[in-house]
Amino acid sequence: MQKILLFTAMLFFLFSCKNAKNAEQENEHAAHDIYYTCSMHPQVVADKPGKCPICHMDLVPAEKKKNADPNALQLNEQQIQLANIQTDTIRNGSIGNRIVLTGILNFDQTKLETVSSRVAGRIEKLYYKNTGDFVSKGAPLFEIYSEELNNAKQEYLLALDRKNTFIGETVIDFDQLLESAKNKLLLWGMTEAQIETMIKNRKASPLTTFYSPASGYITTLNIREGDYVMEGGAVVNLANLSTLWAEAQAYSARMPDVSAGTVASVQIPDLGGKIIKGNIAFVNPEISADTRINLLRVSIPNPGNALKPGMPVYVFLENTQTNALSLPIDAVIRDGANATVWVQAGDKTYKSRMVKTGVESGDRIEILSGLNEGDIVVVNGAYLLNSEFIFKTGADPMAGHDMSNM
């Protein structure tokens, strides 16, 4: 009887040890479903609590997910807060094709005036000697000594004296002779008032004053006092600043949206961001073969001459508003011809999805395909998610994008 009791006790002991061992194995297996990592350095992984060897922060527990999607990225609450991950629900809204170009203010070439000497001679006096000086229309510009012009003056006075001397005693038509001599003086730049003064005084001055035919600022002063100028030689260049050109460059791909006469907005940063409306006055028909860039000019008014050539500007071209899905530009990760966004696929779980983009307007971009209205999209922190995915998996998230909605 004692042997039977001893044998029974031994069997009970063996079964107890086996059950304890199985329980210990189960606990150990369960423990392996939990690991510890650093929220700042996810590459640090440990099987028990401790400190991060890099930043010395406490390791946080993380649960291993069975059958997890290899293309998804799961974060804990602390990682989401540190990365400032923010999401928004995509909806339909109004968006326009707004083109933003950089440019610079320049002279309106249609309002430039070159004042030339109509006769050859020596410049004896310049009334304006500095570039940037403003010249009013009709103001004296320079005095010139010209042999040809002085001879023409003498011829006119001589014809006038002959007419008064031979009244009714000659067949010569002095009126026609005087008219021809006067027209010659007018063509060479003298005014009616100067001719009348010469007739009144019966004397021709050796110097002739020439007056400005237009108002404007001197942009180029081609001569100095004492210089000899040829007939037709430029003396000064004048620029009327009542209107200016905002010259901007656009890539050839955007040119279908640009045409002469289109209304544009020109922003001047140097004047506190002031915006002036204008019309596209010129679109260069020739495209640079090297840069594929085209030139366009927007004519804008310049009341009070507050705008100066050389000021940097932004040119905004607005096109028709359309109703479409749109996102903040920073939510879209673009790599060459591809574009992806991160969508929320579950609780603290995010997945990369390829999209097709359209026009840009301000800080938003149109989504043509790849997303549906109501999808929750990461609008802040998308680039951090992208980097985290590459760091953890060593793969480009585009390799696992969802093509079902494309």
Automatic annotation (TrEMBL):
<dbReference type="InterPro" id="IPR045800">
    <property type="entry name" value="HMBD"/>
</dbReference>
<comment type="similarity">
    <text>Belongs to the membrane fusion protein (MFP) (TC 8.A.1) family.</text>
</comment>
<dbReference type="GO" id="GO:0022857">
    <property type="term" value="F:transmembrane transporter activity"/>
</dbReference>
<dbReference type="InterPro" id="IPR058791">
    <property type="entry name" value="3HB_CusB"/>
</dbReference>
<feature type="domain" description="Heavy metal binding">
    <location>
        <begin position="35"/>
        <end position="62"/>
    </location>
</feature>
<feature type="domain" description="CusB-like beta-barrel">
    <location>
        <begin position="243"/>
        <end position="319"/>
    </location>
</feature>
<dbReference type="GO" id="GO:0030288">
    <property type="term" value="C:outer membrane-bounded periplasmic space"/>
</dbReference>
<dbReference type="Pfam" id="PF25869">
    <property type="entry name" value="3HB_CusB"/>
</dbReference>
<dbReference type="InterPro" id="IPR058790">
    <property type="entry name" value="BSH_CusB"/>
</dbReference>
<dbReference type="Pfam" id="PF19335">
    <property type="entry name" value="HMBD"/>
</dbReference>
<dbReference type="InterPro" id="IPR058792">
    <property type="entry name" value="Beta-barrel_RND_2"/>
</dbReference>
<feature type="signal peptide">
    <location>
        <begin position="1"/>
        <end position="20"/>
    </location>
</feature>
<dbReference type="InterPro" id="IPR058649">
    <property type="entry name" value="CzcB_C"/>
</dbReference>
<protein>
    <submittedName>
        <fullName>Efflux RND transporter periplasmic adaptor subunit</fullName>
    </submittedName>
</protein>
<feature type="domain" description="CusB-like barrel-sandwich hybrid">
    <location>
        <begin position="113"/>
        <end position="237"/>
    </location>
</feature>
<dbReference type="Pfam" id="PF25954">
    <property type="entry name" value="Beta-barrel_RND_2"/>
</dbReference>
<dbReference type="GO" id="GO:0016020">
    <property type="term" value="C:membrane"/>
</dbReference>
<keyword id="KW-0732">Signal</keyword>
<dbReference type="GO" id="GO:0015679">
    <property type="term" value="P:plasma membrane copper ion transport"/>
</dbReference>
<keyword id="KW-0813">Transport</keyword>
<dbReference type="GO" id="GO:0046914">
    <property type="term" value="F:transition metal ion binding"/>
</dbReference>
<dbReference type="InterPro" id="IPR051909">
    <property type="entry name" value="MFP_Cation_Efflux"/>
</dbReference>
<dbReference type="Pfam" id="PF25975">
    <property type="entry name" value="CzcB_C"/>
</dbReference>
<dbReference type="Pfam" id="PF25919">
    <property type="entry name" value="BSH_CusB"/>
</dbReference>
<feature type="domain" description="CzcB-like C-terminal circularly permuted SH3-like">
    <location>
        <begin position="328"/>
        <end position="385"/>
    </location>
</feature>
<feature type="domain" description="CusB-like three alpha-helical bundle">
    <location>
        <begin position="148"/>
        <end position="205"/>
    </location>
</feature>
<dbReference type="GO" id="GO:0060003">
    <property type="term" value="P:copper ion export"/>
</dbReference>
<dbReference type="InterPro" id="IPR006143">
    <property type="entry name" value="RND_pump_MFP"/>
</dbReference>
